[in-house]
Amino acid sequence: MRSIYIGLETRFAVRMAFACLWIAVSGCAGYQLGNQSLYRNDVRTVYVPVIRNDSFREDLGVRLTEAVQKAIEQRTPFKVTGDPTADSVLTCRVIGDSKQVLTETNTDEPRAIDNAIAIQASWINRQGSVLMENRILPAGQLAFYFRQSSRMVPEAGQTSATAFQEVIDDLANQIVNQMQVRW
């Protein structure tokens, strides 16, 4: 008689475990794990043309294009493509850059310099809908404005090239952050 109860208890425990597992799995079926849930699922490819540069530093557009493409490939599920007929197009334009001396020595040599780049960016799908979402963007606007600066200390061995590269990398990350879907 005792072995019948043990058999019933074991079968009941197995059935309860299976039922709990089924409820847990089916309850989470709509959720996505990882960074896939942060980005749009209707976009798979992104075309990033060479960024137009309206500043006097001629290499900023090319360097920023490379940084944006690399950030998209590394941080998003999207594939960067060279095909203009991709699912979406991310167009950017450098609208200005500046270099300002913050402090200087007694002999007028710069001790700290602020480097800044301002860009305009828009992400549009094939149908012409704006894909970047931001609550600050006024109605009717298609482009976002980003500005990033970096402090450079020449006495510490920093150069304008390294300071601007830091700004470029930060701008690329800001752009990719705006590609995330808002909660």
Task: Describe the structure in your own words.
The protein is of the alpha/beta class and 183 residues long. It has two domains: 1-31; 34-178, 2-Layer Sandwich (Double Stranded RNA Binding Domain). Helix content is 33%, strand content 27%. It has helices at residues 2-27, 60-75, 160-178; strands spanning 45-47, 52-53, 79-81, 88-104, 110-125, 144-152. Mean pLDDT is 80; it is low at 28-32.
From the alpha carbons, calculate the radius of gyration and give it in angstroms: 26 Å
Approximate shape: elongated
Tell me the CATH superfamily of the largest domain.
Lipoprotein like domain
Order of helices and strands: HEEHEEEEH
Poorly predicted runs of 5 or more residues: 28-32
CATH fold label of the largest domain: Double Stranded RNA Binding Domain
Query: Count of helices?
Result: 3
CATH secondary-structure class of the largest domain: Alpha Beta
Helix content: 25-40%
Please, how many domains? 2
| Largest sheet: number of strands, sense, barrel closure | 6 strands, mixed
Task: Give the name of the CATH architecture of the largest domain.
Answer: 2-Layer Sandwich
Structural class: alpha/beta
What is the distance, rounded to the nearest whole angstrom, between the alpha carbons of the first and last residues? 58 Å
Mean pLDDT: 80
- Proportion of residues in β-strands: 25-35%
- How many beta strands in the DSSP annotation? 6
